Amino acid sequence: MNIEEAADQLEALGNSTRLQIYRTLVRAGDAGMSVGRLQDRIGIAASTLSHHLKRLVETGLVAQERQATTLICRAQYPAMRDLIGFLSDECCADMRNGCASGEAA
């Protein structure tokens, strides 16, 4: 992952509504969640949800799949792991003795 991708994903997650949507999808697991159920869970208007989902899809954090008339949203766990790894891979890299116990991510 490069710094621009990480910044884009972090910017997307920097919005409290998008972060709430993303966390809800992460909790849903591999099965994901329909847009309708997600809307009920989050409690926002369909157009607002669509706007926020579009941003999460653009950054690769969420994928959508149509199943008949239902749109299923899923958190993209590899993207999440890449972002977390990007943030933690160089933890304490410039310290002479590395990270002290319990400080590393």
Give a structural overview.
With 105 residues, the chain is an alpha+beta fold. It has one domain (3-88): Winged helix-like DNA-binding domain superfamily/Winged helix DNA-binding domain (Arc Repressor Mutant, subunit A), CATH 1.10.10. 54% of the residues lie in helices and 13% in strands. The protein is built from five helices and three strands, in the order H-H-E-H-H-E-E-H. Helix 2 (16-28) packs across helix 4. The model has no long low-confidence stretch (mean pLDDT 92). Keywords: DNA-binding, Transcription, Transcription regulation. Residues 1-95 form the HTH arsR-type domain.
Give a brief description.
With 105 residues, this protein is of the alpha+beta class.
Descriptive keywords:
105 residues; 5 helices; single chain; Arc Repressor Mutant, subunit A; alpha+beta; 54% helix; 3-stranded antiparallel beta sheet; 13% strand
Query: Main beta sheet, described?
Result: 3 strands, antiparallel
Low-pLDDT parts are none
| Topology order in helix (H) and strand (E) letters | HHEHHEEH
Q: By CATH's scheme, which homologous superfamily applies?
A: Winged helix-like DNA-binding domain superfamily/Winged helix DNA-binding domain
Over the alpha carbons, how many angstroms does the gyration radius reach? 16 Å
Q: Which strand-content bin applies to the residues? A: 5-15%
Shape: elongated
Average pLDDT confidence is 92
Which fold name corresponds to the CATH topology?
Arc Repressor Mutant, subunit A
CATH class: Mainly Alpha
Q: So, CATH architecture?
A: Orthogonal Bundle
Helix content: 40-55%
- The SS-based structural class is alpha+beta
Protein name: Metalloregulator ArsR/SmtB family transcription factor
GO molecular function: DNA binding; DNA-binding transcription factor activity
Keywords: DNA-binding, Transcription, Transcription regulation
Domain HTH arsR-type: 1-95
